[in-house]
Design goal:
Blueprint lengths: L19 E4 L7 H11 L14 E5 L6 H12 L8 E6 L9 H10 L2 E3 L3 E2 L4 E8 L5
Helix pairs in contact: 2-3
Pfam family, one: DUF3052
Protein name: DUF3052 domain-containing protein
InterPro entries: DUF3052
Length: about 140
Amino acid sequence: MNQTASQNAEEFGFEPGDIVQEWLWDDDVDDSIRAKIEDLTGEDLVDEDYNSAVDGVILWWRDGDDEDELSDTIVDACGVLDDDAPMWVLTPKPGRPGAASSSTVQSAAQTAGMNAATPLTVSKDWNGIRLRAFGKGR
C-alpha cells in the first residue's frame, strides 16, 4: 500500500524545528495533516497573520474560491517564505465537496510566478500540489 504524505509528513519537505505557515484554514481541513506536520516539526502551525520568515507554507484551497485570490495569496505567502522552502496548495480530491481542478491551481501558480507539480494524495480527502519558483527544481 502506498503511504501518503500525511502518513509521512517529511514528504512535504518540512524538517524538525521548521515554522510552517497555514493559509485559508477552515473547519473542513484535515486535522490529521496538520497534526503530522506539527509532530514532525515540533512546532505549532502559524496562521496567515504571522509576519516573520517561515520555513514552509500550506495553503488550503477549495473550488468556488476566486482564482485571482489564489494567485494573490500565493504571492503573499511567498513574501514570508524562505528561498526554496516548501509551499503546498492542498485541495479536496475529485468528487469531494470543494474539489478544485489542478489546472486552476496551475494557472494561479503561473500568474504568481510559480510552477505547480503533479498532485499528490496527502490524505483520504485531500490532494497536495507543491509549488516552486520558476527555474527551481522539478
